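Fig. S4 source data, part A: sequence.
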Amino acid sequence: MDGAFERIMDVFGWRGALWDPLLLGAIMLMRILPIIFQTPFLGGKMVPTETRMGLAAGLAILVWPYATANVAPMNTNPMVLVALMGKELFIGFSIGFVATELFYAMEFAGRALDTMRGSNMAEVQVPELALRVSPVSQFNFQFLLVIFCALNGHGHFIESIIKSFELVPIDQWPNLTNGFEPMVNLLMEYTSGLFAVAFGLVFPGLFAAFMVDVVFGMFNRIAPQLNAYFMAMGIKAMGGLAMFMFAMTLMAGQLAHQLEDSLKFIRRWIELFN
């Protein structure tokens, strides 16, 4: 059996021992699995667990030549293997978290708009995140997902994953000589920029809902017998939505640029580990 397995590995250009490719594959999956389970454009929580595991295995096969190019024979010490797996989990989780941040920012901004216009009680589910969100949050999330796939963002993201295995081989440790502070500062700056773009998209709707409250508040002061609160509810909901859709036509191009910047940031984030 061992000889047959080794002959099969020889076909793929691997000359190591029997357990080396198995250990390498297990460690590679520790980086790939957190990415697959977090990113909505690779299926997210909507896809069954078995399918996500199969996708992770397929991606591991895809990156195998890059991940094992300069890898020495594996140290079979259990403590070393556990430490390497923990390192891979950290790298994979950080990459998946950074890649998903923009989608959560858009969802949060949509929730803020629905709360301002009084429509946050209506909820729908985002299948990719398995979360209950407001209608505008769902629209923002799916709209961003369509733009991301139209720009071939998932292809560029897979290229970044391959690059991560080249920069940080699975048998080596990240080069964090400057500590985590520069990484945290960079992540905070990136996150603040994401929320600025997301709230810039919904700001016209927020402003319209606020102005409706101001105008009907003045009407209530002038004519207290008018039930201004209930009169404003429908106008505020429709006005905020109308201004949001108007801003959407202006912000679609900006969202595309933001997605490109996010992909560049993911590559830059990976390079910080080298």
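Fig. S4 source data, part B ends here. The chain has a mean pLDDT of 79.
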